[in-house]
Every structure is written in structure tokens, then in C-alpha cells.
Design goal:
Elements: H1 3-28, H2 33-40, H3 44-60, H4 62-71, H5 74-93, H6 98-126, H7 132-160, H8 165-168, H9 170-184, H10 201-224, H11 229-251, H12 265-295, H13 300-307, H14 309-324, H15 330-351, H16 358-385, H17 391-421, H18 433-477
Length: about 475
């Protein structure tokens, strides 16, 4: 580690801890839902709201958090995010009923959004441009650790202590982090970037409702039926509110999303490619356990153990990919990731039908490398392209789009599997082996198509970067 990295390490740790806590709490609760439902006498549908309320409120407030990050003291916003997350975790731990817990989780989702967006916005504010990839590599590592630890840690705590402790452990960690963040984060991040004369309350409210409705429709469409009255109503309402949000933003004196963001072609392209990649990542993660259990006949614990290769490779490669993006243009690393992903999914669409488990293990290794090779450089690229004084807004837009894309990815892969396999009932075991394999092969070919589209979108910029590199080499040679 260089002296410059050591100098900025405390701030990077504070940022990583925030992203780790938010990601951990996204996954740690899932394994405890059956126990929580039994204790409160709740139905599975009511228990699912514990997860859904967190997701909807987190995603729905990210754009607003981005605007606040550009307008208020980013240091204070970051610390208050820790406080809000910790206090709401305490509310979750002492919940006396299912609806109390759902409400507390909604507030916790807002706290997670504040932490995540302010953490992303702090990186370009605190970390020099030449170390930005290194910092985002550490953030990606923290995310991977949160994902990897979430489910097993939640299971251990629920089994040996109580489900309430999955929330209680956040309180001392969050309060300690909040108290230390003031010392770890330099005062350069304390002052607001720009003063706003008025806040776009109508735009904030409409954006929250639009994102929450769209995310709910995409998340619940597979279970409720895409042509059910509830899904059609929420989807159409979300689209209508999204249109209203665009109209409001054009007229607002201080819009939630600054117009300068949409005038940046490279940023738009980077966001589009990231959306495609995150959709594939989420869809592949969703379908993987079904493949391992139904196509390979593994038990749930063995399937989880096999799948751990994916986050493990992410932990190993992500920090290195981040550091590489400080030397190599992030666009080239993202393009390389898309190529590796296309090749990996293409090969596995054939190999998934082979007997044995080794081809699946190799797939998870290569798939984990492709993901790690993309995420850190993509974060670096997007935040590096953020217009001056709009880093928070870009962070909010980026995380909102990727969150929605992940829900869309699950829906797309579920639909592709159902369509190709002919699966209509709730019992996958009733499908023939050939139908199962056809369904999985179809989903992996969909991944190839989506990644190829992403590669085409990034090809022009990658070509220009390579050409510029050759010109620079030629100039040095001359």
C-alpha cells in the first residue's frame, strides 16, 4: 500500500463500512422470515413486506438522497444516515407486531439509501482521481462480504440467539461508526457544494411513488401474474407518474435531477451498460440455486456451498479490478468483463446439460471474475463522468437504475425459464429433465444476448480509448 493510499485509508474504511451495513441488512433478514412470521402469527405475504418495505423505501429515496448530497453538508448527511439506520434498527429489534416491523424496516431502508448515496458521493470528494478505482474496489469488496455473510450470519443468529439480534447488532456498530466518521472524514466534505434556493418537494414525492410502484410491479409480477389487475394498475400508475416526474423536472427551479446529467452522452451510455450488466447479474443469481438443486440434485446447503465460489471470486478480484481501473481506462475493463461474461454464459448454456458438478463450479468461478471485473471499474467510470457539483445526483441515479435493473433481471430470467421450459405449476420437480435443462439453457442464452448488447454499446468508446492509447504510444516513440 502506497503512502497516498494509507493517507486516505480511514475515509475509505468509513465509506466501506456504510456500504457493508446496507448490503448485509438486505440479505441477513431473508433467512429469518419464517421464524419472524411464526412469532407474530403472520402470513408469508405479510412477512414478505418486511423485505419489500426496505427495498421500496431504499430505492424510492435514492434520487432525493443524491440531491441532498449535492446541496447539504455531505459529511453531516453521511453521519445522520448512520444515526437513522441505527435508530431504525433498534425499532426493528423491539417490534411488537408485524406492522411495527414493516414500518421500522421502511425507515431503515431510507437510512440505508442515505448511507449508500452519501458514501458513493464521498469517494470523488475525498479520494484523488488517481485512487478512485482503488476506493471503489474496496467498496465492491465490502459489498461482496455483506452479500456473502448476510444469509449464513442471519441463520446463525436466528438459530442460536433470536431474530431480534440481527437488528440489534447494527446499533452499536452504527453508532460507533457515526461517532468516528466525524474524525475519519476530512472537513473538505463538510461544506455544501452549492446552495439551493428551493427544494423540489413535488418532484421528490412523485419520483418516490413512481420508483416504488414500478419496482413493486416488476418484483411481484411473476408471483401475482403479469396480467393481474394489481400488477397492471401498479405498472401503469408507475409509468404515468414517471411521465409526470419528467414534466415536473422540466419546470422546477431546482430539479431533483440536474439537466446537465442527461446532456452527457458518455454518462448515459455508461449507465445503460451498467443497467444491462446488473440485470444479468441479478437474474443469474436468482436462477443459480434452482439449477443446482433441480438440475444437479444438490441439497440446499450443498448448493449454497457451491454458489459461495461466486462471492469468493468477487472478493478476490474486485479490489484488484478497482486498482487496475486507476491505470487502465475503466471502459476497457468493463468491455473485457462483458466479453468474459458472453463467453462464460455461451459455454455454460451447452455445458449445463453435462453430468457432474465441475462445469457448474467452473462457471461460478468465471462468472464471479466477470462480475468483479465490471463493478469496480463501472463505479469508477460513472462517478468519474459525473458533472462537477452533481456527484450526489449521479450516485442517486446510478444506484436507482441498477436497483430497478436487478428487479427487472429477475423478472426477465424467470419469464425466460417459464416460457422455454413450459413450467406453469408451482412444482419444478414435476418438470422432465429435458424441460428443466431447456429452461436453464434459454435463460443463459438470454444472458449472452443482453451482455452482447452491452458490449455493442460500449464498443465505440472502447475503440476510441484504444486508438488514443496507440497515438500516445506513437508520440512517445517519435
Amino acid at each position: 500500500m502506497t503512502e497516498t493510499q494509507k493517507k486516505h485509508l480511514p475515509a475509505a474504511i468509513a465509506i466501506c463500512l456504510a456500504t457493508f451495513m446496507g448490503k448485509l441488512d438486505t440479505y441477513i433478514v431473508n433467512i429469518s422470515l419464517p421464524d419472524i412470521a411464526r412469532r407474530f402469527g403472520a402470513t408469508p405475504a405479510q412477512a414478505s413486506l418486511i423485505v419489500l418495505s426496505f427495498l421500496l423505501c431504499s430505492a424510492g429515496t435514492m434520487l432525493v438522497c443524491g440531491k441532498l448530497a449535492d446541496s447539504l453538508s455531505l459529511k453531516k448527511l453521511f453521519i445522520r444516515g448512520y444515526w437513522l439506520f441505527s435508530i431504525s434498527s433498534l425499532g426493528c429489534a423491539f417490534a411488537q407486531g408485524i406492522w411495527w416491523l414493516v414500518l421500522a424496516r421502511a425507515v431503515q431502508g431510507v437510512g440505508a439509501a442515505v448511507l449508500l448515496i452519501s458514501a458513493f458521493a464521498l469517494v470523488p470528494r475525498l479520494i484523488p482521481a488517481k485512487l478512485r478505482g482503488w476506493a471503489f474496489g474496496m467498496v465492491a469488496l465490502a459489498n461482496a462480504v455483506g452479500v456473502g455473510l448476510g444469509t449464513p450470519l442471519g441463520g446463525l443468529i436466528t438459530t442460536h440467539l433470536s431474530w431480534r439480534w440481527i437488528f440489534l447488532i447494527n446499533v452499536p456498530i452504527g453508532l460507533l461508526a457515526a461517532s468516528r466518521a466525524g474524525a475519519l472524514i476530512e472537513d473538505a466534505a463538510a461544506a455544501p457544494l452549492k446552495k439551493i434556493e428551493s427544494f423540489d418537494y413535488s418532484g421528490a414525492a412523485v419520483s418516490f411513488c413512481a420508483i416504488a410502484l414500478l419496482l413493486y410491479a416488476v418484483s411481484a409480477g411473476g408471483e401475482r401474474g403479469w396480467f393481474s389487475h394489481v400488477i397492471l394498475f401498479t405498472l401503469s400508475s408507475g409509468i404515468a407518474l414517471l411521465g409526470a416526474f419528467i414534466v415536473i423536472e422540466r419546470r422546477a427551479a431546482e430539479p431533483v435531477l440536474p439537466p446537465v446529467i442527461f446532456g452527457h452522452k458518455q454518462l448515459r451510455m455508461a449507465l445503460a451498460v451498467a443497467c444491462i450488466f446488473f440485470a444479468v447479474m441479478s437474474g443469474a443469481n436468482f436462477i443459480a440455486p434452482f439449477y443446482l438443486e433441480y438440475a444437479k440434485g444438490l441439497t440446499a446447503d450443498m448448493a449454497a456451498l457451491a454458489f459461495m465460489l461466486y462471492p469468493l471470486m468477487h472478493m478476490i478480484v474486485a479490489p484488484r479490478a478497482g486498482r487496475m481501473s486507476d491505470v487502465v481506462h475503466p471502459t476497457l475493463l468493463c468491455a473485457a468483463s462483458l466479453i468474459v461474461g458472453c463467453c462464460t454464459f455461451s459455454a455454460f448454456s451447452i455445458a449445463c446439460a453435462w453430468p457432474g458438478i465441475w462445469e457448474a463450479l467452473v462457471f461460478f468461478i468465471l462468472y464471479g471474475i466477470a462480475n468483479a471485473l465490471f463493478i469496480s471499474p463501472s463505479n469508477n467510470l460513472v462517478m468519474g463522468l459525473a458533472p462537477e457539483h452533481s456527484e450526489g445526483s449521479v450516485a442517486g441515479l446510478y444506484n436507482t437504475l441498477t436497483t430497478v435493473s436487478m428487479a427487472v433481471g429477475v423478472a426477465l430470467f424467470e419469464t425466460a425459464f417459464t416460457t422455454v421450459s413450459g413450467h406453469k405449476s408451482g412444482n419444478l420437480a414435476a418438470l422432465s429433465k429435458s424441460a428443466l435443462l431447456a429452461g436453464f439453457r434459454g435463460t443463459y442464452m438470454l444472458a449472452v444476448l443482453m451482455l452482447f448488447i452491452g458490449l455493442c454499446l460500449s464498443a465505440d468508446k472502447a475503440r476510441k480509448v484504444i486508438a488514443a492509447g496507440f497515438k500516445e504510444i506513437g508520440a512517445i516513440a517519435d
